[in-house]
Amino acid sequence: MNSTDRTAPAAGCGDRGPGKEGFRFRAGRIDLLPPYLYAELDRLEAETRARGIDIISFGVGDPDLPTPPHIVDSICAAAQDPANHRYPTYDGLLDFRRAVADWYQQRFGVGLDPEHEVLTLIGAKEGIGHLLWAVVEPGDLVLVPDPAYPVYHSQVVLAGATPVPVPLRAEHDFLADLDSLDSGIADRARLIVLNYPNNPTGASASLDFFHRVLDFALRHQCLLVNDCVYSELYLDGNPPPSLLAVDGAKEAAVELHSLSKTYNMTGWRLGFAVGNREILNSLLSVKKNCDSGAPQAIQRGGITALRGPQGCVEELRATYRRRRDLAVQAFSRAGWSITPSPATFYLWAEVPPGYDSSTWAGWLLERTGIVVTPGQGFGEYGEGYVRLALTLGEERIAEAAERVARAGSFAAHGRPNIR
Ligand SMILES: Cc1ncc(COP(=O)(O)O)c(C=O)c1O
To answer: Does the N-terminal or the C-terminal CB of the chain have fewer CB atoms within 10 Å?
Structure first.
């Protein structure tokens, strides 16, 4: 068949319709997406590495440590069982959802009905995307934190809705400043997205803050979602609360969780959504048409993770705490002052005077081979900061700080830009 044959309508298929000129390989909505932040970082890193430079990457937040062996063993055993070789159920194994409900009760003091208030996800990222399809209409407004995990913005856009940035400012401890929005916007918004503990700022939210946001949401008839994939990575001994611990939260709110960060399971893809049953039901309707559920062997591993000994999580917190303290001290000795984060494995570091987030990331990459993420990639209110993911060992962190110290005065050099 030649190319003319391929573009011609097959006999009997009729007309190709008015105005249709050949194939369209890209829907218009794709062009509304910003370049995927980490893809750009990966490209830059590869380019610098190709120049023979030993890169120290604080870029992507993918835990460097392995999944605890008791969880891997349990997944391997479950993989041998033919009962786990067929399509999973869409909403997940009831045993897994029961383990989630028990964990929630123990950890947050929140009771959940495992049959109707817990839904298994193939990671929180999947949940974010499908949740937006489930509850917003094209043209709706969605309040999205800024700076934020870029997927919120992209998924709102893919759902045909409009993201409205809610600033997270240092002077408000990076808590979403909903009062700064004019009330017309709040009345038109369908959904508020929160993320505490927060990527990229490392901020944690109190129950009192959640109270105020829930009040706001109910007053303006907005649904509420808190993405709390970092809930267990608290580094100063204060376990963050659940939004669902606020009285009445289940009227309008859900939380998204993941085993990715708590148990170093990013590669296995397992998470869950909990809370308002109607929202979860809508989410399930979308999922039934988009995916066929999380692999059961992985869910069995999830049960082992949630019901098993939690010492591995305590050790993980201790590791990130040591890395955080080392980085803050060592970079500060090198002349770059960084405020420690109370939670997550991120440092949200102000750029030195005279730089913006891109020129500072560019200076670090060119002069020291260090990769950090420019704050402007997380939204306009991220300008003035870069994010460091502490997903690398202490030796490399110390080496990075030494390189910065050796590179000398920041101001004395040129300012390459990686934009
Ligand atoms: C705030 C936030 N939510 C969700 C995710 C993705 O989680 P999962 O691996 O469960 O899809 C990430 C990953 O970095 C994240 O930072």
So the answer is: N
Could you give the angle at the alpha carbon of 323 between the alpha carbons of 322 and 329, nearest 5°?
A: 90
Task: Indicate the burial class of 110 (C-beta count within 10 angstroms; 0-12, 13-18, 19 or more).
Answer: buried
| Residue ranges lining ligand 1, Cβ < 6 Å | 61, 123-125, 149, 195, 199, 227, 229, 258, 260, 266, 271
Q: Where are the beta strands (DSSP E) in 185-234?
A: 189-194, 223-227
Q: What separation in Å is there between the alpha carbon of 43 and the centre of ligand 1?
A: 21
Q: Best substitution site from 261, 262, 391 to test ligand 1's pocket, by max atoms within 8 Å of Cβ?
A: 261
Query: Between vectors from CA 278 to CA 272 and to CA 279, what angle results, nearest 5°?
Result: 50
CA of 397 to the centre of ligand 1 (A): 23
DSSP 199: T
Residue intervals in the chain for CATH 3.90.1150.10: 34-63+311-412
Residue 61 Cα to ligand 1 midpoint, Å, equals 9
Give the chain's end-to-end CA distance (angstroms, integer): 45
Place of tokens 């993941």: 258
- Tens of pLDDT along 154-168? 999 999 999 999 999
Whether residue 10 has pLDDT greater than 70: no
Please name the CATH architecture into which domain 69-307 falls.
Answer: 3-Layer(aba) Sandwich (3.40)
Give the architecture-level CATH label for domain 34-63+311-412.
Alpha-Beta Complex (3.90)
- Residue 121 has what pLDDT? 98
User: Reading across the β-sheet that carries 385-389, which strands appear in turn?
Assistant: 346-350, 385-389, 373-374
3-state secondary structure (DSSP) of residue 398: helix
Distance in Å, CA 60 to ligand 1 centroid: 11
Dihedral angle over CA of 51, 53, 56, 61, nearest 10: 10
Query: How deeply is 399 buried, as exposed, middle or buried, from its count of CB atoms within 10 A (0-12, 13-18, 19+)?
Result: middle
Atom 14, ligand 1: residue with shortest CA distance: 61
Tokens of 354: 């005279």
Comma-separated ranges of CATH 3.40.640.10 domains in the chain: 69-307
In 3-state terms, what secondary structure has residue 393? coil
Instruction: Give the distance (Å) from ligand 1 centre to CA of residue 268.
Output: 13
Average pLDDT over residues 270-284: 98
